[in-house]
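Page 42, continued from yesterday. The earlier attempt failed because a stray header line got pasted into the input along with the sequence. Redoing it now with the clean sequence only.
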Amino acid sequence: MKKTLAFLLSLTLLTTIFSGCARERMPSPADPVTLTMWHVYGSQTISPLNTVIDEFNRSLGSEYGITVNVVSVTSSSAIDKALAASANNEPGAEEMPDLFTAYPRVAEIVGQDNLLPWDEYFTENELSFFHADFLSEGYFGEQLLMLPVAKSTEAFYLNKTLFDRFSADTGITADDLSTYDGVFSAARAYYNWSGGQSFLQINDYYHYAYVGMKAYGSEFIRNGRLRLDDEAFRTIWIPLAKAAIGGGICLDDGYAAARWKTAEVIANTGSTADVLYQPAEVIYPDNSTEPIEAVALPYPIFTENTSGAIYRGGGLFAMQSEDERRNQAAYLFARWLTEKEHNLEFVTNAGYLPVREDALEALFADFSLIEKENYRSVYRAVDTMLDSYTFYALPLYDGASEIQSDFETNVKSVLKTAHNQYIRRINEGEDSDTVLDALAESSLEELKSLSGK
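This time it went through. Structure tokens are written below.
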């Protein structure tokens, strides 16, 4: 039966290729192709994409003489830098990969003319299966240069085991974490209850600000500039600042998953893909360990009348080759990876969303497709959000990556300095509420100053 299915798939692919693309040369076992690849899926753990790629190499890849060789699994920022070094022929730079996953901004780095236009290989019918919003992000003018392979949104992660103890003593429940007001109130209470431990880490303050200002009917970014002097920004900044300055929010660099391991934080906002790195236990300073139950909740809302979250995730790029076999090989791999069965296998082991409509419908119709309970928790949260949330893609503009990075750095620097001042001043006998109010206001002015406002 499997051989019959494989034969039919091969026949379908050949028909599509020769009728839709009319290419002269195809890879084959007698004329094989090896494609190198850089990607971001699982840089600190077992990569679910590598597992699926191995399956491709053993199946369809073997039939066509195609091998996809993953030579780097790293972060998107590291891929940006490596691509720039390769494109500029910098000393010691790696050779440009044939395939890589990245955000749209890299098209400028490597040059659009150097990238494979997927729409010249995928037929209109094949592209019609993709979720339209996901696909639209990959177009540069009339050409589809970035193919969606996985998308994520954001959620609120909670170490339920430790939170339940806090809840039993304070009466604060998981329901209170549905809004940012509730989250910040819980953060301040947890700091006092725990004797000075942070409750929360926000992995992306830029996303927080973008969604928050949307909730209040304004825009965080206009004409490539951050609008920190807008009243809506002040509205979302002051509650955040008070919670952070008071000690309830971790302001150190790095991602939250590492701090979950040592219970330095017990909650965070972040990508649904963060579940891939979520620990199953915590380690205490005395080296004792404890298993934990982790849950994902919908991304907190800012007002009762508005709910929104960022959706994100780059896509698959291919370098266009003069050797048509290599272009065809890239297409065959990309087509295989985005088919329902293979895409679901990949994304549900990584906390992402599939990119085709049929796969999305299958996923949310039956959570039994997902093996691990903490992953099911993520998709249940997303399912809830799909009913009422607006999902936003971050805008592209000149210097966006640098502006976002600077904003993250400035927010943490300003709030950390203010927190240290808060501790010093209340230790000197000043009223805590008065100091907190003053430092929240002054932190806003300091942030504006650092951002050139």
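Notes: The chain is about 45% helix and 15% strand.
Reminder to self: strip header lines before submitting.
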